Amino acid sequence: MNNIIEEIQSCRICFSNQLEEMFSLGVSPLANALLTADQLDKSEIEAPLDLIHCQNCHAIQLKHTVNPTVLFSNYSYSSCFSKSLQEYYDNLARDLKLKYSLQTNDFIVEIASNCGIFLDSLRKNNLTNFIGIDPASNLVAEANNKGLISICSFFNHLNVQLWKGVFDQPKLITAFNVMSHSPDLNDMIQGVKSWLAPDGLFLFEVQYWGDIYQKLNFSNIYHEHFVQWTITALDVFLKSNGFYIYNIERIDMLGGSIRITCGLNKEKENYFKIGVFKELENNIRLFEQNSFKNFYSNLLSLKEETIKLLDETKKKGGKIVGMSYPAKATSILNFFQIGQYFDCFFEDGPMKIGKFTPKYKKAIFDAKMLESSTYNSNDLIFIFANNYAKEIIKKWKDKIHTNWVWLDKTVNVVKT
Questions:
Q1: How many Å apart are CA 326 and CA 101, to the nearest integer?
Q2: Angle at Cα 21 formed by Cα 16 and Cα 23, nearest 5°?
Q3: Residue 58 and residue 65: Cα distance in Å, rounded?
Q4: What is the dihedral of CA 194, 195, 198, 200, to 10 degrees?
Q5: What string of DSSP letters covers 129-174?
Q6: Phi, psi torsion values for 395, nearest 5 degrees
Q7: Distance between CA atoms of residues 10 and 27, nearest Å
Q8: 78 neighbors 142 (Cβ within 8 angstroms)
Q9: What is the pTM of this model?
Q10: DSSP 343
Q11: pLDDT tens, residue by residue, 137-150
């Protein structure tokens, strides 16, 4: 890919040209492209956030591709600061070990291993024959410094051919929230297929468009997510690449996700669960133009409701600050065009503290500074990590008495 931004001409999954427009969230800066102080006067990369629907395989996808090297080579999100995520992966590693009788010497590969948070969970469960693969050099260094063997690279079919000469065939390959992050997912899955042991498992988690649609969770649409998955599209994608779905689980991760366990054995295909999900997707009319129009109309209503609250707060002389700056914050600020209302943001993530938000250039401070700040009933703290809203309020409710706000299908306000 020579250009930073390119418009696709065919479906990312089935290569059909039967593509139809869904809606646009406008031209947006890159979600995780936080700025340092010396970048504030420099131009930023912006790209359209237009969703399209493939009428052949029903894949919902971005119309434009931002070069993955620009998106991922130095990544500003590290999973390792989150205690709840660490607990989640510790429990998952334990459960996988028991469910699939994994042994200490079974080789396990994690795609997009980030800071090594899941690798650490494997190690805690005495599953020590593993490697992680991630394109972000800063995160790979963090993992390797903890003794969690990681390779700095994109996962693709060509690179897998090199690794096959060095490493065993994996009994398990995992990919958490990354099967939407490649512009060439067919090449990626072929890499998995060529390396995986014949009786091996490929387990991955992705955000589920069914939840995004029903919960109006539009903020999960940003440039890193090239595809928004449904079971209808996943079944086509996996089968066309020689994989069969063994199990589907709905999980709460990121406001609504699915965990897929699949492999190369057709006899283990779970026709029943696949059928249940396809029927659900048809019943709620996920792939109809009227549904796309209704989704967008509801977004505009949510935008209007949000701006009304922010305007009222400013008229009362209230302060408005943001709590957390996840990638989804960029989608919300940009589509709603509300960045100018905020004084600053607060974060727990050390990789974000001291930086500035894209486009609006608002400072991001350590969340600990909230304790020394003064807020009252006229002020508003906007929680952008809406899937952690209740957890965040519980942590701060006895320390700060003000209005806490987060979005789902409506604007939620809690006073503490």
A1: 36
A2: 140
A3: 19
A4: -130
A5: -EEEEES-HHHHHHHHHTT--EEES---HHHHHHHTTTSPPPSEEE
A6: -70, -35
A7: 21
A8: yes
A9: 0.94
A10: S
A11: 999 999 999 999 99
Tokens of 199: 């009786």
CA angle, 164 then 168 then 171, to 5°: 115
Position 17 scores a pLDDT of 97
Tell me the CB-side half-sphere exposure of residue 184, using CA atoms within 13 A: 12
Q: Are 379 and 319 in contact (CB under 8 A)?
A: yes
Nearest to 309, CA basis, from 401, 238, 215, 405: 405
Distance CA 197, CA 194 (A): 9
CA–CA distance, 110 with 132 (Å, rounded to integer)? 5
Q: Where are the alpha helices (DSSP H) in 316-358?
A: 327-336
Residue 401 has pLDDT above 60, yes or no: yes
The DSSP H or E segment spanning 209 is helix 209-215
- Please identify which residue in the block is written with the tokens 């995986």: 196
Supply angle C-alpha 85, 91, 92, rounded to 5: 85
Chain centre distance of CA 200: 25
pLDDT in the model for residue 69: 87
199 pLDDT more than 80: yes
> What is the arithmetic mean of pLDDT over 60-76?
87
- Provide the mean pLDDT of the chain: 95
Q: How far apart are CA 205 and CA 346, in angstroms?
A: 28
| Number of other CB atoms surrounding residue 178 within 10 Å | 21
pLDDT tops 80 at residue 102: yes
Confidence at residue 79, expressed as pLDDT on a 0 to 100 scale:
81
The full length of the chain comes to 416
Structure tokens, 385: 């990590």
286-308: average pLDDT = 97
| For residues 15-34, average pLDDT | 96
User: What does the pLDDT read at residue 253?
Assistant: 85
